[in-house]
Amino acid sequence: MANPFEGKQDTTGGKAGFAAFGELTSDKAYDDETLKDNPGSPLPFPVENPPQEYIEGVRQIERPDYEGIQLQKFKDLKKTCEAMDDIFEREFIDVINFKKNEIATIMQEAFDAIPDGAVDPLANRRLILPGATAPTTGIVYQAGISSVSYAVSPDPGGGPDVEIFGAKGQIFPDILAAYHYPVLSNGSHGETDLPLANGTYISVSSNGIGGSGEYKNSKLGIGESVYHSGDTDYAGAVGLVTSLSSLGNFYFFGQVGSAADGSNIDVVRPGSSSAISDLIDQINDLRSNLRVRIGPPQADNSSGINTLRSTKLQDELAVWYDEAGNRTENIFDFQGGIDSLVGNATSISEYNG
After folding, report:
1. What are the CA-CA distances from residue 141 to residues 24, 108, 120, 160, 335 (Å)?
2. Which of 195, 145, 154 is nearest to 313 (CA)?
3. 281 — phi, psi (to 5°)?
4. Cα gap 9→11, rounded to integer Å
5. Measured between alpha carbons, how far is 50 from 43 in angstroms, rounded to an integer?
6. What Rg, from alpha-carbon coordinates, does the chain have?
7. 3-state DSSP call for residue 105?
8. What is the DSSP string of 233-302?
9. How many other CB atoms are there within 10 angstroms of residue 104's CB atom?
């Protein structure tokens, strides 16, 4: 398109318009070139009139699909992390929570075995008082211990019976939690999106709805690091754990003498104390083995999955930046500026201030 200010440069407005039109036209041409699949091609020959053999050889060169190679590299690393998360879920988390369910069942059966409408139950059938210090079990959300009414005490003066309360805690599932960056995980490319902004924890599971982008089908493999989150260490994800449905309650029965072992549960349900103790030992073994497989920072080794996961994050970042550069629109409405200059060329050229 011809410059509409050609021959109208005897005013300050005409001179400025002529220069502005040239600059916008150049900027648009450059930006249009960046939108092509192979910007800048074909490259100029290094010398004038090169031999035909050279020309033929250049034409036959196939440029590697660098973005495709990078994407596949990321997908391969993601798939390995996904595979390990699946193993962690099936071989550890699911088994831990199955055993927690068993404990919850034992506890409910024991609680239900306290006679209905019990009046001043014998001391060896009572729960500890809600205000007492509940022992740490490793399977209870300790900060959420509350009270439950389970018996009554008659008023000696003939008034209404007084309820007797005991301590109980909720048993939540153990989970895998990943620390991730939503913009990066979702493949978002909004104007203000930064790939490593607003990092947060997310529950990792093969069940339920995934995210978007590469994680639209499953959140397995997501994030820069994965953690085991359970009652002995929530690893920053306590909110994710306690937002889940409880598996049941842990009722804190009293004990013989000063031993804080809750052994009085055996009075209402024989064998419960040792059964629960064995299940907790099994859960702790599973947790320890899981953390070794996860690696730093939950275990001091270099062979855990988090070492590989950090490499995956770097390749995921490279893909994000590749995609961020694949624009389909101009970064600025250069054509609109050009059209404005063309439509107002006469008025602008008449200005001489």
Report:
1. 64, 17, 29, 34, 62
2. 195
3. -60, -40
4. 5
5. 13
6. 35
7. helix
8. B-TT-HHHHHTSPP-EEEE-B--STT--S-TTHHHHSTTHHHHHHHHHHHHHHHHHHHHHHH-TTTSS-S
9. 18
**Per-residue model confidence (pLDDT) at position 34:** 73
3-state secondary structure of 340: helix
Residues of the chain with pLDDT under 70: 37-45, 58, 61-62, 116-121, 123, 208-211, 256-261, 327-328, 331
Q: Is the distance from CB of 304 to CB of 293 less than 8 angstroms?
A: yes
42 cis-preceded (ω within 30 degrees of 0)? yes
What residues does 119 pair with on adjacent strands? 152
Q: Quickly list DSSP for 110-121.
A: HHHHSPTT-BS-
9 CB-contact burial (10 Å; exposed 0-12 / middle 13-18 / buried 19+): middle
- Global pTM value: 0.78
Q: Tell me, rounded to whole angstroms, the distance of Cα 139 from its chain centroid.
A: 24
Q: Where are the alpha helices (DSSP H) in the chain?
A: 12-34, 52-60, 66-88, 94-113, 182-186, 238-242, 265-268, 272-294, 305-325, 334-343, 345-349
Name the DSSP letter for residue 141: -
In whole angstroms, what is the distance from residue 50 CA to residue 246 CA? 77
pLDDT of residue 208: 58
